[in-house]
Structures are given as structure tokens and as C-alpha cells.
Design brief:
The protein is built from 2 helices and 18 strands. The chain is mainly beta and 339 residues long. A 16-stranded antiparallel beta barrel has the order 1-3-4-6-7-8-9-10-11-12-13-14-15-16-17-18.
């Protein structure tokens, strides 16, 4: 009888220990799948000829992804874990993660966090200024990452062979610095200084040098980088942006500049955006102008509407006009699901 009671006690203790262990660690699966059917104009064989513009219709992906995140409570205020993300194109079923080799993961890194902030090592997704685009940099009518010519997107890629440090948030202020650690002459780096408190949010974002990724290859070998080398070009991108939530509408303004290796400004884009929630509907608007572009190709205007079928599924439609030789007007119908 004593042995039986002892066994019951040991089983109970084992179950308690297991439950405690599970309570201290977790793995989450999240992501989004978003598709659009759009029409747009593009140049044919003779770029710049107005009569050579062709109307195109396509089914395209708008930033679909699956994210795996593991987190463990290490005690003493420390946490550790692993974050990975796969980006894919649901129109074709192909992967869309950028990087070296076959790039299964767009991001894959381990981290340690605590009161001091968070340190990550591995392949790290870059921060961006997409939070100030009501379309979330999914293209189409978006003015930060829409059609070429007025795209004010800074960073938003991925850095292979990287380390990063994110500060804790203090009175709304926070910062992140991430950089490649390799044999490159011009290491890729991204600095983000942020403020978010109540209805006001602001960001200073700066990227330096070319993206730390290479073209896809067929094998994961050292020779791969010889045939598909990581580009090593000096340059800089800078974005200053702010938004304010008025309750009835959220408005934002941004300026984005890019510079070449010689320090000459190649793009200087300023924009205004707005989103207006109206029950299940959200109205979207954006305007951007590039001071460095020709007067016939320097402006983009977009309007859209989202309709929330549920908290996770959204329908949307957009119209935009992109100034270009011959003109460019597009229409977009979107569907998205987050999980």
C-alpha cells in the first residue's frame, strides 16, 4: 500500500513538473495569406513610348507569410527563443523568401531578452516604415511600396549573417540596430528610433548599403555565393515619419530619401496618408511625390476601402494613378486572411 501511495505521489510530482515546464515555454504559429487581382499599365519593348504602354491583368500575392515563434521563460526576468518566417506566393505556391541559397526562411534567428532589451543572432527581418502606409506596403495603391517611381519604402528586406539589439521601451521611446557580420566591405545595417505613446507615433529609420541577400541557387554550398554573390554597394536610405490617431481617422506623413555611393540623392519622396474606420469598413487614402523624378512621373495617388468580414478575413478594393510616360492607372480587388 505504501509503495502504491509512493508511486501515486511520484506520478503527481512528474505531472506537476511537466505542467510547470509547459507553462514556462510556448510555440505560436501565425501568419497571413493575401491575394489581389489587379490591372495596371506597363511598358512594352520600347520603354518611354506612350503608345507602347500595355494594359495587364494579374493575380498577385501581397506579402503572405507563416511565422513560427518559440519563447521560453528562463527565470530572473530573462526569456529566450527562436523566430522564423516563411514567405510564399499563394498565386503559384512558390516560396518568396529572400536570401542566400534556396531561402526557405525569410527570417530565422535565436534571441535572448530581458530588462536590458533583446539580442538576436541569425537571419533577421529588417524593420521598415510600412506602419505609415495604410496598405501596409502590400503594393497596388500603397504609396510607400506601390508601383516603381514613387515607392518610399526604406529597408523591409532581410539581413543574413546578422546580429541585432532592441532596447526596452521607456516612456514610449525605443530603438533597434541590426547589421550583417561578414566579410563585406559595406556591411548592411538598419537603425530605427521610435516613439509611440497614446495617439502619436513617430519613427526615424536609416538603412545603409545594399541588401544582404543573394540570388537563389540550387544547392547550399560555399560555391553558391561565388556564382550568386551578395551585392556589396554603398548607399543610404532615410525615412522620417509620424502618425496621429484622431479617433475618427488616423493620419500620417513621411519623407523618404535614398542616396547613392557618392552621396547624391536619387529619390526624395514625401507623402500623406489616411485611414478612416467606419464600422466594418475602413477607407484608405494616400498621396506621394518624388522631388527627384521628372514632372511627368513624380506623383502617385491611391484610394481604397477594406471590408472586414470577420476579425481575420478582409475584402478590399483600390484605385490608383501613377504618373508615368503614357499614364498609369490601376484597379485592385483584394482578399486577405490572418491567423
Amino acid at each position: 500500500l505504501e509503495n502504491l501511495e509512493m508511486k501515486k505521489t511520484l506520478v503527481a510530482l512528474a505531472a506537476l513538473a511537466a505542467a510547470s515546464a509547459f507553462a514556462q515555454s510556448s510555440v505560436t504559429l501565425s501568419g497571413r495569406a493575401s491575394m489581389d487581382v489587379s490591372t495596371f499599365e506597363t511598358t512594352g519593348s520600347t520603354a518611354g513610348a506612350a503608345a507602347d504602354f500595355k494594359r495587364r491583368v494579374r493575380v498577385a500575392d501581397t506579402a503572405s507569410r507563416i511565422t513560427f515563434a518559440a519563447n521560453e521563460d528562463l527565470g530572473g526576468g530573462l526569456t529566450g527563443g527562436f523566430t522564423s518566417q516563411i514567405r510564399f506566393d499563394p498565386a503559384t505556391g512558390d516560396r518568396a523568401s529572400s536570401g542566400t541559397g534556396n531561402a526557405l526562411f525569410h527570417a530565422a534567428n535565436a534571441y535572448i531578452g530581458g530588462g536590458f532589451g533583446t539580442v538576436r543572432v541569425g537571419k533577421i527581418a529588417e524593420l521598415s516604415n510600412c506602419a505609415f502606409d495604410p496598405w501596409g506596403c502590400t503594393g497596388g495603391a500603397g504609396v510607400i511600396a506601390g508601383a516603381a517611381g514613387t515607392s518610399g519604402l526604406i529597408a523591409a528586406g532581410t539581413i543574413a549573417q546578422a546580429v541585432s539589439y532592441a532596447t526596452p521601451t521607456i516612456a514610449g521611446f525605443s530603438g533597434t540596430y541590426q547589421t550583417s557580420v561578414s566579410t563585406r566591405t559595406n556591411e548592411r545595417s538598419v537603425l530605427s528610433l521610435n516613439y509611440a505613446n497614446g495617439p502619436l507615433a513617430a519613427q526615424f529609420l536609416q538603412s545603409k548599403n545594399s541588401a544582404n541577400t543573394a540570388a537563389d541557387g540550387t544547392t547550399h554550398t560555399t560555391a553558391l555565393l561565388a556564382s550568386n554573390p551578395i551585392t556589396d554597394v554603398a548607399g543610404k536610405g532615410t525615412s522620417i515619419a509620424a502618425s496621429y490617431d484622431l479617433g475618427v481617422a488616423k493620419i500620417a506623413a513621411f519623407n523618404a530619401k535614398t542616396e547613392d555611393a557618392a552621396g547624391a540623392v536619387t529619390k526624395n519622396i514625401s507623402g500623406l496618408t489616411a485611414s478612416v474606420p467606419m464600422g466594418a469598413y475602413t477607407l484608405l487614402a494616400g498621396y506621394a511625390k518624388d522631388k527627384k523624378a521628372l514632372a511627368t512621373a513624380d506623383t502617385k495617388v491611391g484610394f481604397g476601402v477594406n471590408y472586414a468580414l470577420s476579425k481575420r478575413t478582409t475584402l478590399g478594393a483600390d484605385v490608383f494613378k501613377q504618373d508615368a510616360v503614357g499614364g498609369s492607372t490601376g484597379y485592385v480587388v483584394r482578399v486577405g486572411h490572418a491567423f
